[in-house]
Amino acid sequence: MRIVVIGGTGHIGTFLVPRLVRAGHEVVSVSRGDRSPYTEAPEWDQVERIRADREAEDRDGVFARRIADLGPDVVVDLVCFTVASATALLEGLRGNTGQLLHCGSIWRYGPSASVPIVEGSATAPFGDYGVQKDQIARLLQQETADGGLVTTSLHPGHIVGPGWAPINPLGNLDPGVWRTLALGSPLRIPGLGAELLHHVHADDVAQAFELAVANRDRVAGEDLNVTSAAAVTVRGYADVVAGWFGRSAELESVTWEHFRAETPTEHADTTWEHLVRSHCASIDKARSLLGYEPAYTSTEAVLESVRSLVARGELDLPEPRAALNTSR
Hints:
The chain has helices at about 15-20, 55-60, 65-70, 85-95, 130-145, 175-185, 200-215, 235-245, 255-260, 265-275, 285-290, 300-310, and strands at about 1-5, 25-30, 50, 75, 100-105, 150-155, 160, 185-190, 195, 200, 225, 230-235, 250-255. By secondary structure, the chain is of the alpha/beta class.
């Protein structure tokens, strides 16, 4: 089939585009800039690359038509964040393509009330990002239920992979957290550290999208969680990371007020956004309908990301770090 991947050189597209080429599809990658994928692969030599500023073209009302004019059998939309943008794409593709796959997020769910979270059983989302992702998923479901375009939305956890920083055990992107754990120094955590974080390797997300292309009718009108097989607690995650350096995590529980007072606002806010949700998502539906099986645990996926950052000189961590220099 001819498949257009919007956001093809991003986190998921880096792995999805080569997968689709290997499966025998003709692939068109649409990206805002000229950035190379995070990990190079020979399959990219067979990919048609198109540059498009979606935000600007959405404002001009031409993006959806531009995608439809590419003549795709399938469109994979990895970078849609608003209902308005999703609606425009639906209207442009309706009657012109066979399947639309959307990348959502487990942030379409609010704070966990029971875990694991099963599709359709979560609390209401909050914050513009989560609310929009939830509304888009519902819009797509209704589109298919009404006999329109065949759609499916896949909802990843915290995506990690080589080339970018993973969400750390504090639920933020502060690089100092990795060094603190590597040195065995005390790390202050807000609350008890029982909150959950649910990562997923970008290639596992790509696996799910590839399977959804191959099983269109089975997932028509569905939404599916796509994460690793199990979430990790703050404490458990921190201890695994410290273990990479031959340490045990030395964690000190503090109040949120204390944590905010000694943490830069950006990192404190990001920690709160992740830990207040405390997500653990079920992948039983994706396993049942697609045969999805993640190749990485949460911490294996994070380890690959950290190795990549160290190798690129973007993260300075002390010795010993044997786990970073051995195969998975």
